[in-house]
């Protein structure tokens, strides 16, 4: 029986991101993926929100995605576009990039980190005990792991076998989506009918001045809202009939790359952890794709879980650190479920709903509602409940331009290796964290600019911040060290008797 510290079921964006996070921390991790090649990834998701780009920048890989995608204002609520170009982030936009490209880039990163892959296999069973999990594969082999993470989608076998309930709401609407070729030139754009919204667009496109510009020829992306909730496996004939019903012709569709169906089924795992089995991504939450939040939420699940699981595996932190994964990410997922349900309701074809939609659209044109909803949809306003205190506590650390004794650097550069940072912005040499020096970087730096958070505006500048590997602030200094030792112990384990000198960068002014 082959052994790994962690086995991940599913090699989509969530599983790949989690594997990379664990590998960065030196954890032996393997992905079990039913597809024989990452090239077989679909293109159901089409972009990254601002916070996800920040997450990738924290690992030094955002440019890989930015070089292939198209920058655009993608944040929106019920088809009302929400501009974030004035937000305090280096990425005040979203990125148009199909999921197959996102997966390819993530898989390349994971490969560089020596993540093990079991391709062409599925997890068919599991049995956990006090010491680990036995994972059964479709070819009859078994793997042994200390922990198993289900990143195997909305129909997650890991979730089902682990006995984790999946409460929520059944679908009320469904849509066919596909990528096909057409012998006739289609009517591109969005069309509304009594059955709902429909759209045709060319897969190959670019963004110019914030507008979509399609390239001639190529594959056509199709989205059709069905008149009734579909349940069977969709076929080319279903797609043809749907096109005829809406457009009067099927434009001679042929050679589908793939055909699928999505619904507004809305469910969330009752717990993200059952012993040594954890869930992330669609295995933990499913909802309508409106707003493009699914892939982004899954990648951020992985970012939250990865460093915590690594510390537990390496015996740096006690096992109860994993409880904070559910405590922090379950409320985030629940909010996504609620806002997608609201958006689906607002997009229904009905005169009264249309009046409500117009009212909401008018409200979102106002600055404060626009900033609040845009911060939510882009993921920039996430706050984990770490108690009362400074507005930064539990929120994302901004990517500040810092000045250090070794020269200027960006805050996110300090997170490339997924190591926590105590950033001292006050008098150099104020802190001594020798008992945590093998885990936490101590950096003396200066920053002269204003501190601002999306939807909150300016905040009081802290004298120091303790930044977790996922980029969230675990402690904020107010000129004293009150609460720092407790925060270090809570998030990065008890002090060690073996003291290694801290990595320090001394400030030389602003």
Summary of the model, kept short:
InterPro entries: FAD-bd, FAD/NAD-bd_sf, RIFMO-like. The protein is α+β, with helices and mostly antiparallel strands. The chain is 27% helix and 27% strand.
List the helices and strands and how they pair.
Layout: E1 2-9, H1 13-24, E2 29-33, E3 47-48, H2 50-58, H3 62-66, E4 70-72, E5 76-77, E6 80-81, E7 94-96, H4 99-112, E8 116-119, E9 123-128, E10 133-137, E11 142-150, H5 157-161, E12 168-169, E13 174-182, E14 189-193, E15 196-202, E16 205-208, E17 211-214, E18 220-225, H6 236-247, E19 253-263, E20 266-268, E21 273-274, E22 277-279, E23 285-286, H7 294-313, H8 323-346, H9 351-364, H10 367-378, E24 401-404, E25 407-410, E26 421-424, E27 441-444, E28 451-453, E29 457-459, E30 464-467, E31 473-477, H11 484-492
Helix pairs in contact: 1-4, 1-7, 7-8
Describe the structure in your own words.
The chain is α+β, with helices and mostly antiparallel strands and 510 residues long. The protein folds into 4 domains: 2-46 and 98-169 and 267-343, FAD/NAD(P)-binding domain, CATH 3.50.50; 49-61 and 68-94 and 348-382, no CATH class; 174-263, Alpha-Beta Plaits (2-Layer Sandwich), CATH 3.30.70.2450; 401-492, Glutaredoxin, CATH 3.40.30.120. The chain is built from 11 helices and 31 strands. Strands 1, 2, 8, 9, 10, 11, 21 and 22 form an 8-stranded mixed β-sheet that branches. Strands 14-15-18-13-19 form a 5-stranded antiparallel β-sheet, with helices on one face. Strands 27-26-30-31 form a 4-stranded mixed β-sheet, covered by helices on one side. Helix 1 (13-24) runs parallel beside helix 4 (99-112), helix 1 (13-24) packs parallel to helix 7 (294-313) and helix 7 (294-313) packs antiparallel against helix 8 (323-346). The termini are far apart.
